[in-house]
Design brief:
The protein has 112 residues and is an alpha+beta fold. It has two helices and six strands. Helix 1 crosses helix 2. The longest helix is centred in the middle third of the chain and has 15 residues. It starts with a strand and ends in a 12-residue tail after the last strand.
Length: 112
């Protein structure tokens, strides 16, 4: 297991159903092959929802080396359309330590 002390965690709250597409784009276009996506629901107040109204989202988490963090953050921001209305929210923060896990690239794709 490869441990890294120079990593950033990028977390994105995206419209439900869009997280896996961003993971595919990260792999295909940015050579990032690690990302976690889960769906969750929450509530809050904003211009398009009342407090108490549930909203379902995909949560995308990507750990990257600090050197690529801004590049990958901007890639997700652009590809997910975060700046286009109510299409999500993103954060980026430093990690004390992370472990790199990788899947061999020569495995056949499940969608093939």
């Amino acid at each position: 297991m490869d441990q890294n002390t120079n990593s950033k965690l990028i977390t994105s709250l995206l419209p439900k159903g869009t997280g896996l597409g961003i993971v595919k784009l990260l792999n295909d276009e940015a050579n990032i092959s690690a990302g976690n996506v889960n769906s969750c629901r929450g509530t809050g107040t904003s211009g398009n929802s009342e407090f108490g109204e549930w909203v379902e989202v995909d949560v995308l988490e990507v750990v990257v080396n600090s050197e690529r963090a801004d590049e990958v953050f901007n890639f997700i921001y652009d590809k997910a359309g975060i700046g286009e209305g109510n299409h999500g929210f993103m954060t980026q923060g430093s990690l004390v330590k992370s472990s790199r896990f990788s899947i061999p690239r020569d495995l056949p794709r499940e969608d093939s």
